[in-house]
Specification:
By secondary structure, the chain is of the alpha/beta class. It is built from 13 helices and 16 strands. A hairpin with an 8-residue loop joins strand 15 and strand 16.
C-alpha cells in the first residue's frame, strides 16, 4: 500500500464492490490464477467490465480493456488485486493499461506473487498514471485467503463436508438420503466452486456416486475426481470408471498388482504414492503433488475413515457439517460419524450458515 493513506469517494467504493462481485463470480474457476474483477469508469459512468477468464487467461484487466468500445483516455480502472507486471504465458496487464491511455488505476491489495508484489505501482506511476491502493482492503484480503494460502504454502485449499442424522449416523442400510434437497444444492455448489473432489475407493464402491455438479447449466464445471485406492480395487462398473479419462480422474495407489496397473492406466491418471506402516497414504505428499498438477481447491467428500483422518491431522482449511433433524433407524448395517468430537475439539472457529436450508442445520468450521 502507499505510505500515505489514499482517500476514496462513495462511488469509488461502489465500483470496487462491483469488481469484487465480478471476481467472486469466477472464484474457483480460474485454474492456477486468482480470480480478479475489473471495472473501468469514465466521467463517473461504467464503460467496461472484465473478469479473469475461465482457466485463468486472459486476465481481468486485459478483458476489460478489450471489451471497451470507447476512448479509454481519461478513464479510471478499479481492480480487486494488483495487476500483473511480469511476462508469463501472456504480456503483463501493466503493458495493456499503459497502451490503453487509462489515467488512473485503483487496486485494492498487493499480490502475494513475488514477481508482482509492490512493483505495479512504480511501473504505472513512471508513465504518469495515478495509482491508489487500499480500497476495501480488509474485505478483499479475506476474499483472497484461499489464493494467499495456495501461494504461501504451495498446497491446495482443502474443504471438507459430511452429512449426519440427528443421532450422528452417516449411513444406515435402507436410508439413502439424510439431508434435504436444499442442502444438496449447497453440496453441488461446493463442487462447482472447487476444481477437484477427493474420495476413497471404499465410499465410491459402496455409494457409486457421480461426484459432478448438477446445478442447472453448471455441469461443465464439475470438479476433477481424485480417488485414494491403494490396491486399485475401484469397481470398473462404477459411474466414475465408465466416465473416466486421464484428464478428469486421478487415482493414487501403492500396492496394486502390475496387471491392475496396466488396466487402470488406460483410462485413468494413476500415481504411485507413499503409504505408512498402517497402509495409509501420506496425505501431505499427495497434496503437494496435486498442487504441482494445478489443483488449487479440493473438496473432500469421504466417508467416516477418510474424513475422520483428515480432521485428526487438521488437513481441512474449512469443514461443512450438515445435520438433519431426522433420527435414522439403526438397522443391520449402520455407520456413526466418529470425527464429531475431533471436529469440535480442533476446529473451534465455527458459525451457523444463515441461508434457508429448511430444517437442516449447516455449520461451517474454519481452521
Amino acid at each position: 500500500m502507499s505510505t500515505k493513506k489514499d482517500k476514496f469517494s462513495i462511488n469509488d467504493k461502489l465500483y470496487m464492490e462491483l469488481a469484487l462481485d465480478l471476481a467472486n463470480a469466477r472464484k474457483g474457476l480460474t485454474g492456477t490464477n486468482p480470480s480478479v474483477g475489473c471495472v473501468i469508469v469514465k466521467n463517473d459512468q461504467i464503460i467496461s467490465i472484465g473478469q479473469t477468464s475461465f482457466k485463468g487467461r486472459p486476465h481481468a484487466e486485459f478483458n476489460a480493456i478489450k471489451n471497451c468500445y470507447e476512448d479509454l483516455k481519461g478513464s479510471k480502472m478499479y481492480v480487486s488485486l494488483e495487476p500483473c507486471c511480469h511476462h508469463g504465458l501472456s504480456a503483463p496487464c501493466t503493458s495493456a493499461i499503459i497502451n490503453s491511455k487509462i489515467s488512473e488505476v485503483i487496486y485494492s491489495i498487493k499480490d502475494i506473487d513475488k514477481r508482482v508484489r509492490g512493483k505495479t505501482k512504480s511501473i504505472l506511476s513512471k508513465k504518469n498514471i495515478i495509482v491508489k491502493t487500499g480500497l476495501l482492503s480488509n474485505k478483499i484480503s479475506k476474499f483472497y485467503e484461499t489464493y494467499f494460502y495456495n501461494r504461501k504454502n504451495q498446497l491446495p485449499f482443502v474443504t471438507g463436508k459430511i452429512a449426519i442424522s440427528k443421532n450422528d449416523l452417516i449411513y444406515s442400510k435402507g436410508n439413502k438420503r439424510i439431508t434435504n434437497t436444499t442442502s444438496d444444492k449447497l453440496t453441488h455448489y461446493l463442487r462447482y466452486k472447487n476444481d477437484s473432489i477427493m474420495i476413497s475407493y471404499k465410499t465410491l464402491n459402496k455409494d457409486n456416486p457421480r461426484l459432478d455438479c448438477r446445478l442447472r447449466k453448471l455441469k461443465k464445471f464439475s470438479p476433477k475426481r481424485i480417488i485414494l485406492d491403494n490396491k486399485l480395487n475401484l469397481s470398473l462398473k462404477s459411474y466414475i470408471s465408465k466416465t473416466a479419462n486421464r484428464k478428469n480422474t486421478i487415482i493414487f495407489y501403492n500396492e496394486a498388482e502390475n496387471s491392475k496397473v496396466n488396466i487402470f492406466k488406460k483410462n485413468f491418471t494413476i500415481i504411485k504414492s507413499k503409504i505408512n506402516k498402517n497402509k495409509k497414504f501420506d496425505i501431505m505428499i499427495i497434496m503437494k503433488k496435486l498442487y504441482k498438477m494445478g489443483c488449487r481447491n479440493i473438496l473432500v467428500e469421504g466417508g467416516n475413515i477418510l474424513t475422520s483422518d483428515f480432521l485428526k491431522k487438521r488437513f481441512f482449511n474449512q469443514f461443512y457439517l450438515f445435520r438433519s433433524p431426522k433420527k435414522i433407524s439403526i438397522l443391520n448395517e449402520f455407520k456413526k460419524f466418529e470425527g464429531l468430537n475431533v471436529l469440535n475439539k480442533k476446529y473451534k472457529n465455527k458459525h451457523k450458515l444463515k441461508s434457508n436450508f429448511g430444517k437442516d442445520n449447516v455449520m461451517l468450521y474454519i481452521k
